[in-house]
Automatic annotation (TrEMBL), chain A:
This is Glutamyl-tRNA(Gln) amidotransferase subunit A. It holds the Pfam family Amidase. It comes from Methylobrevis pamukkalensis. It catalyses: L-glutamyl-tRNA(Gln) + L-glutamine + ATP + H2O = L-glutaminyl-tRNA(Gln) + L-glutamate + ADP + phosphate + H(+). GO terms for molecular function: ATP binding; glutaminyl-tRNA synthase (glutamine-hydrolyzing) activity; transferase activity. The lineage of its organism: Bacteria, Pseudomonadati, Pseudomonadota, Alphaproteobacteria, Hyphomicrobiales. GO terms for biological process: translation.
From TrEMBL, chain B:
Its EC number is 6.3.5.-. It comes from the Bacteria. Allows the formation of correctly charged Asn-tRNA(Asn) or Gln-tRNA(Gln) through the transamidation of misacylated Asp-tRNA(Asn) or Glu-tRNA(Gln) in organisms which lack either or both of asparaginyl-tRNA or glutaminyl-tRNA synthetases. The reaction takes place in the presence of glutamine and ATP through an activated phospho-Asp-tRNA(Asn) or phospho-Glu-tRNA(Gln). It is an enzyme of class 6 (ligase). This is Aspartyl/glutamyl-tRNA(Asn/Gln) amidotransferase subunit B. Keywords: ATP-binding, Ligase, Nucleotide-binding, Protein biosynthesis, Transferase. Pfam families: GatB_N, GatB_Yqey. GO terms for biological process: glutaminyl-tRNAGln biosynthesis via transamidation; translation. Belongs to the GatB/GatE family. GatB subfamily. It comes from Methylobrevis pamukkalensis. The keyword Protein biosynthesis applies. InterPro entries: Asn/Gln-tRNA_amidoTrfase_suB/E, Asn/Gln-tRNA_Trfase_suB/E_cat, Asn/Gln_amidotransferase, Asn/Gln_tRNA_amidoTrase-B-like, GatB, GatB_C_1, GatB_Yqey_C_2, Gln-tRNA_amidoTrfase_suB_CS. It catalyses: L-aspartyl-tRNA(Asn) + L-glutamine + ATP + H2O = L-asparaginyl-tRNA(Asn) + L-glutamate + ADP + phosphate + 2 H(+); L-glutamyl-tRNA(Gln) + L-glutamine + ATP + H2O = L-glutaminyl-tRNA(Gln) + L-glutamate + ADP + phosphate + H(+).
Length: 386, 492
């Protein structure tokens, strides 16, 4: 993927911070310490999280340090930080970009994509990044269209699904209002709005938190201190493994390795992993049914709230942090493309984003719709304080 | 579900203190796929090489690396499945088998668990007096691990990843074997089939074929007993020894009123015993799950048909043809078809010649000599043409069978055209009766007492044959000598 960018003349400036092994929704699990968002609440100096796991990418783009950034998204790691920082982030269809060279978190969900200042930049970047790759058996050989040409294209007559299951009980009023605003904008642009049902949505987050840790527990087995990375000596090989992995992995990573190991264990496999895979099939089926019924794309909020303060959720139940991904994980579970586009500011002056979900390999429609929202909503830049 | 396909045979029972016991054996054979590169990487799969010389980034499990299936390994597995007359599964799935070990860099082995590439098949064994059909449960593809080396440093172990990622076929038999002889014959037959197919070189000493052997004992025809698995046996002879030891160990425990604990054991060839490696309780939980880096492996019947069309004649078919076309005995046919190269050699020799004579010369003289020198047929100093010429020289009475053996020796050691050698070294047999008669008369005249004894006891005439042969430098036609002696001595 980076080779594609280089071949197209891109200039790489450096590496960006992220949550450890891409496990986190706030950048607070980073080994290097948390990224601070360029955004602040109006009249406040409190440091805010940029979202995660690709919080470094989102912040660097939001701070205008770089033109665009690569990122990966396993459950929302491109779209959630993009929404928190007023940038555009797209997670393409699973198989659209090569995963070769990407440190694996959950192989069946991981997908690379760009975070950019606007929809057009995101389209240009994705056009360059996307390709089939013989070195990644899960990459797909489908022609990459000219995404940039789709930006500004009319969305007239497109059928936009509004999933009723995403109207969570107790949904933040600002978010709900933003969603309604998005519906109105698209309606004004000539799109047709239809209510749809994705009945298995409520099982997505729990199923995701079985599938992703299961794969992660296996993917991270290679960090055992034998060939590379940290090695903490021990009295024997098992002791060395335990010492190295205990010292080397952060708490969130350890938590997920433990969950993953547990759900794959003899006696629990059927009840957890196998059942989660079945749920995944049902979630995919939900989307397919809608697309078969003529829906071209689905509009949802990107996140359940605006960015929160660093440390604000430190003491909270990890599940509360996991809820950040409630609108985004379904897209990974179904392998679909999803784009987060800035749509407005909260009452406290923080960016809020909307998400558009498309048919497999129909990123072009997402760029067209994203462009329409961007045109209506305008663009949002953080006030420079650094 | 284990199904007993065999009828208990008293000839195979082991006699214990409390009566007869029957051994039940099933095997998991790991056969290294013959291929240039590894199962999921482009690194060389060649045996040997400096430590860690054949290691790609994938084999070393560097972060971000992904496996890509080697199509040739898939073909080899399908060919092997066809050779085992097995069901070929058009869709199979690669799973991860998770465990920590220093020579397993990924922390998991990519294998096939629930949906293997090959399903049920059969291996036929020619045992003395019977044909035994052994069921094959499945064949699946998997990666080999690297090698841990413990004798290079006082406190550290070294790891060689050359084997890491090399393709293996695990061929699982049903519990259909009932003696160590059958088990050995199974390994030998499997190796023959793999070598014919060219899908595994079968070199057990290099580790390209090794067996995990499941052994249990029971009262003849009774319920299956608790089994123990003997891991990583790397020779056919050791397999026999390990099974014999293990069966007697289990019988001893049961006859003393004990119970067999299901466990994994290792065979120690020096002591000839098996030792416990780990108990069932200590067994790993491998946490198998489908490898998300690989799509299910799918191909159509046309892919299978193309491979089937390219298969060589298999040992069982060749053996049947040898019996039918050459009229050789089933045993000779079996020996001749053990290896493709042997069968080819025989067919070249037998072409246009008497098949039984050819079979005798190939098996007794030629194979005998190869075995004596520990040579492979490919390293033979004698060609099929040379051996065929020797047989022709016997057939046209140029030389006797005895001279032929001397000629064989010369050709083997020095090479050359057999017919020219016979001429240049004066090895042509004497068929001139006048010359033979003269020699016979001379010998009888010099040994009148022996001649009298032979007249009374005709079997003693053999001594005269020997003397005449000696006198003629072995070149006299033995049959003519025999007849003339009998005539001169008046023996019927």
């Amino acid at each position: 993927m980076t080779a594609n960018l280089w071949a197209d003349g891109a200039v790489m400036l450096g590496k960006l911070n992220m949550d450890e092994f891409a496990m986190g929704s706030s950048n607070e699990t980073s080994y290097y310490g948390p990224v601070k968002s360029p955004w602040r609440k109006a009249g406040s100096n409190m440091a805010l999280v940029p979202g995660g796991s690709s919080g470094g990418s989102a912040s660097a783009v939001a701070a205008r340090i770089c033109a665009g950034a690569t990122a990966t998204d396993t459950g929302g790691s491109i779209r959630q930080p993009a929404a928190f920082t007023g940038t555009v982030g797209i997670k393409p269809t699973y198989g659209r970009c090569s995963r070769w060279g990407i440190v694996a978190f959950a192989s069946s969900l991981d997908q690379a994509g760009p975070i950019a200042r606007d929809v057009r930049d995101a389209a240009i970047l994705l056009k360059s990044m996307a390709s089939v790759d013989v070195k990644d058996s899960t990459s797909v050989d489908v022609p990459v269209p000219d995404y940039e040409a789709a930006v500004g294209r009319s969305v007239k007559g497109l059928r936009i699904g509004i999933p009723k299951e995403y109207r969570l009980e107790g949904l933040n009023a600002e978010i709900d209002g933003l969603w309604q605003q998005g519906i109105d904008w698209l309606k004004d642009a000539g799109a047709e709005i239809v209510e749809i049902s994705l009945p298995h949505t409520k099982y997505a987050l729990p199923a995701y938190y079985i599938v992703a840790p299961a794969e992660a527990s296996s993917n991270l087995a290679r960090y055992d201190g034998v060939r590379y990375g940290l090695r903490v000596p021990g009295s024997d090989i098992v002791d060395m493994y335990e010492n190295s992995r205990a010292a080397g992995f952060g708490a969130e990573v350890k938590r997920r390795i433990l969950i993953g190991t547990y759900v794959l264990s003899a006696g629990y496999y059927d009840a957890y992993y196998l059942r989660a895979q079945k749920v995944r099939t049902l979630i995919k089926r939900d989307f397919e049914t809608c697309f078969e019924a003529g829906v071209d794309a689905i509009l949802t909020p990107a996140t359940p709230s605006a960015a929160f303060g660093i440390g604000e959720k430190a003491g909270a139940d990890p599940v509360e942090m996991y809820l950040n991904d409630v609108f985004t994980v379904t897209v990974n579970m179904a392998g679909l493309p999803g784009i987060a586009v800035p749509a407005g500011l909260s009452g406290e002056g923080l960016p809020l984003g909307l998400q558009l979900i498309g048919r497999p390999f129909d990123e072009a429609t997402l760029f067209a719709l994203g462009g329409a929202i961007e045109k209506a909503a305008g663009r949002f830049a953080a006030e420079k304080w650094w | 579900m284990l199904i007993d396909t065999r009828t208990p045979d008293p000839k195979k029972f082991i006699n214990g203190a409390t009566g007869d016991w029957e051994i039940v054996i099933g095997m998991e054979v790991h056969a290294q796929v013959t291929s240039k590169s590894k199962l999921f990487s482009g690194a060389s799969a060649e045996y040997g090489g400096a430590p860690n010389a054949h290691v790609s980034l994938v084999d070393a499990a560097m972060p971000g690396m992904l496996p890509v299936i080697n199509e040739e390994c898939v073909k080899q597995a399908v060919r092997t499945g066809l050779g085992l007359k097995a069901a070929i599964n058009h869709r199979s799935v690669f799973d991860r088998k998770n465990y920590f070990y220093p020579d397993l860099p990924q922390g998991y082995q990519i294998s096939q668990f629930k949906q293997p590439i090959v399903g049920e098949g059969t291996v036929i064994l020619d045992m003395p007096g019977e044909t035994v059909e052994v069921g094959v449960e499945r064949l699946h593809l998997e990666q080999d691990a690297g090698k841990s080396i413990h004798d290079q440093h006082p406190t550290m172990s070294f790891v060689d990843l050359n084997r890491s990622g090399v393709a293996l076929m695990e061929i699982v038999s049903k519990p259909d074997l009932r003696s160590s002889d059958e088990a050995k014959a199974y390994l030998s037959k499997l190796r023959t089939i793999l070598r014919y197919l060219g899908t595994c070189d079968g070199n057990m000493e290099e580790g390209s074929m090794r067996a995990d052997i499941n052994v249990s004992v029971r009262k003849p025809g009774g319920e299956f007993g608790t089994r123990c698995e003997i891991k990583n046996v790397n020779s056919i002879r050791f397999a026999g020894q390990a099974i014999e030891y293990e069966a007697r160990r289990q019988i001893g425990i049961l006859e003393d009123g004990g119970a067999i604990a299901q466990e994994t054991r290792l065979f120690d060839p020096r002591e000839g015993v098996t030792r416990s490696m780990r108990s069932k309780e200590e067994a790993h939980d491998y946490r198998y799950f489908p490898d998300p880096d690989l799509l299910p492996l799918e191909f159509d019947q046309a892919f299978v048909d193309a491979l089937a069309a390219g298969l060589p004649e298999l040992p069982d078919d060749k053996k049947a043809r040898f019996i039918a076309d050459y009229g050789v005995t089933p045993y000779d046919a079996m020996v001749l078809t053990l290896e493709q190269a042997s069968a080819d050699f025989f067919e070249k020799v037998a072409k246009g010649r008497d098949a039984k004579t050819s079979a005798n010369w190939v098996i007794n003289e030629f194979f005998g000599r190869l075995n004596k020198e520990g040579k492979e047929i490919s390293a033979s100093p004698m060609s099929a043409e040379q051996l065929g010429e020797i047989i022709d020289l016997i057939a046209d009475n140029t030389i006797s069978g005895k001279i032929a053996k001397d000629l064989f020796e010369i050709v083997w050691l020095e090479g050359g055209n057999p017919r020219e050698l016979v001429e240049s070294r004066g090895m042509r047999q004497v068929t001139d009766t006048g010359a033979i008669e003269a020699a016979v008369d001379e010998v009888i005249a010099a040994n009148p007492d022996k001649a009298e004894q032979a007249k009374a006891k005709p079997t003693l005439s053999g001594w005269f044959v020997g003397q005449v042969m000696k006198k003629t430098g072995g070149k006299a036609n033995p049959q003519a000598v025999n007849e003339i002696i009998k005539a001169r001595l008046g023996i019927e």
